[in-house]
Write a structure and sequence with these properties.
142 residues; mainly alpha; 61% helix
């Protein structure tokens, strides 16, 4: 669903740059903006990794993101919310709720028994690091 997100290049900058590069000519040089963005991600992980800060921040970010979509689920329930909202309100909320799946890992055929990194930790580092998690929250609240 990434290609269908409006304003993705402004709100999900690093993900958009990565998506463009992976979809394009991978033999071309990596754009400096993508290099800088990935460096920012790795730096944020490195700086916050000590004393469990990264893990706490990832949990908080993921929790905030999940709470946003729980609130959207609650407000889109017509039996609970006032019915004086326009029908387009409910269709817009239902459409927006679909981006919750954007921040979920894609299943992979990988033997984590032999991996050096727990899948839960890998998800935190990849999806909920300070930069990407911040982009998700920015887009979710836009």
């Amino acid at each position: 669903p990434f290609h269908a997100l409006p304003e993705k290049s402004q709100l999900l900058t690093v993900l958009d740059l990565l998506h463009q590069y992976v979809r394009g000519d991978r033999t071309s040089p990596v754009p400096i903006a993508l290099t800088f963005g990935l460096h920012a991600i790795l730096t944020s992980m490195f700086v916050l990794h000590g004393e469990g800060d990264l893990s706490r921040l990832a949990e908080c970010t993921k929790g905030s993101y999940n709470k946003l979509f729980a609130q959207l689920n609650a407000i889109s329930d017509r039996s609970v919310t006032p019915t004086n909202n326009a029908p387009v309100f409910y269709s817009n909320i239902d459409m927006f709720k679909n981006i919750v799946n954007f921040a979920k890992p894609v299943g992979a055929q990988y033997d984590f028994q032999q991996a050096f990194l727990d899948p839960g930790v890998a998800e935190k580092l990849a999806f909920w690091n300070p930069l990407i998690g911040g982009e998700y929250l920015l887009y979710g609240t836009y």
